């Protein structure tokens, strides 16, 4: 399997290379050259398999020759052995047709763990054969940072520098990052917003003088291996609800379009998916693009679902490329210039067949939380509630089960959950003595020079 850039230029990469890289040199994102196919018989044969075995069968065509099946199985066993639920991503029934797929049983309580626990092991495995030291730089509004730090803490040949906006992440999120004591973990609180932190990271990748001295890598969802790991749970859930005989719909709380793009990949591989519901909060660029073809960014509005407070949805480019590749370079140039562009008719038609974009406001979100709580005793987090509200608002034939991806543990967003339901969820014991442990982070101004100096003094030059 080879991977090419969505901007259509430059060399193709193999799985190992694509895992260790971030953005393509032409500014595009890497995608597989072709979608591997699982036949109906192969999908039917997934029924009853463990999560790890499902993962091996779904991911091995993407991994190609980079790992043997046994090596891949060993890494998956290690990654998913850290989950607090034996089923890794269990399904929970809400009523006759609505289900939750709980993706938050990993160490840091959000679905980001599903991909990042594996990515950390893939980094270590691929770096062990190389004379390379990786410097991972990322910006986080909370969940990616804690999941990436947990996955990379203490691993050989990799340092992680994680920028978060000072005072703008929740206490639980900050402590999950700053109480990790491994010497290869560096937390930086930026005096600014998440957008400022994100802009600093992009500027560092583009700064030749700085980037040239280190082997920089990314852990946000522009990394292909992350999306690959997320395809697995679509198969795992669908076969338990009757696929391939019975098609299933999914509702996905969406920010950067990574998670729902993994669902699209599952459909392209042959999984019968009746609908992919793209649930957004009031930051609804993707819902607008899917319903009206208008991909234009506004200002970010802060909501109770902060991991979805995004205006530029990076992975949407992967979908546009898959539907109408030729149009993408000009569309992305237009977006960079005007922060707005239009989908082509081919892209709109192709997306319309599978996706439904639904925007959910704060009242609808709170209503969905109460509905789940009163109807089935399920306490859900604000992101999941947006997915569930969108699922319930979408018309589908009665025989289609609808699975809402539960992307975060309610304990991670206790205040918002308590406001909506009156129930204050507990933090699971696996996060340990989060509030007793000492925190460690440095505060820096939102200035490129200050951050590059800080990192240069602490990172290992790449070979
Ligand atoms: C990251 C995140 C999302 C959004 O996922 P994307 O892949 O960026 O669309 C939704 N919910 C939670 C809890 C998250 O952490």
From TrEMBL:
Top-level taxon of the source organism: Bacteria
Gene Ontology MF, one: pyridoxal phosphate binding
Listed cofactors: pyridoxal 5'-phosphate
This protein's name: Threonine synthase
Domain Tryptophan synthase beta chain-like PALP span(s) in chain numbering: 87-407
Enzyme Commission identifier(s): 4.2.3.1
Keywords for the protein's UniProt record, in alphabetical order: Amino-acid biosynthesis, Lyase, Pyridoxal phosphate, Threonine biosynthesis
Protein family per UniProt: Belongs to the threonine synthase family.
Organism in which the protein naturally occurs: Sphingomonas changbaiensis NBRC 104936
CDD domains the UniProt entry points to: Thr-synth_2
InterPro entries attached to this UniProt entry: Ser/Thr_deHydtase_PyrdxlP-BS, Thr_synth_N, Thr_synth_N_sf, Thr_synthase-like, Threonine_Synthase, TrpB-like_PALP, TrpB-like_PALP_sf
Pfam entry (one): PALP
PANTHER family assigned to the protein according to its UniProt record, in alphabetical order: THREONINE SYNTHASE FAMILY MEMBER, THREONINE SYNTHASE-LIKE 2
GO biological process: one example: threonine biosynthetic process
Keyword Lyase appears in the UniProt entry: yes
Pathway: Amino-acid biosynthesis; L-threonine biosynthesis; L-threonine from L-aspartate: step 5/5
NCBIfam families, sorted: thrC (TIGR00260)
N6-(pyridoxal phosphate)lysine modified-residue sites: 112
Keyword Amino-acid biosynthesis among UniProt keywords: yes
Catalytically driven reaction(s): O-phospho-L-homoserine + H2O = L-threonine + phosphate
Ranges of residues in domain Threonine synthase N-terminal: 2-80
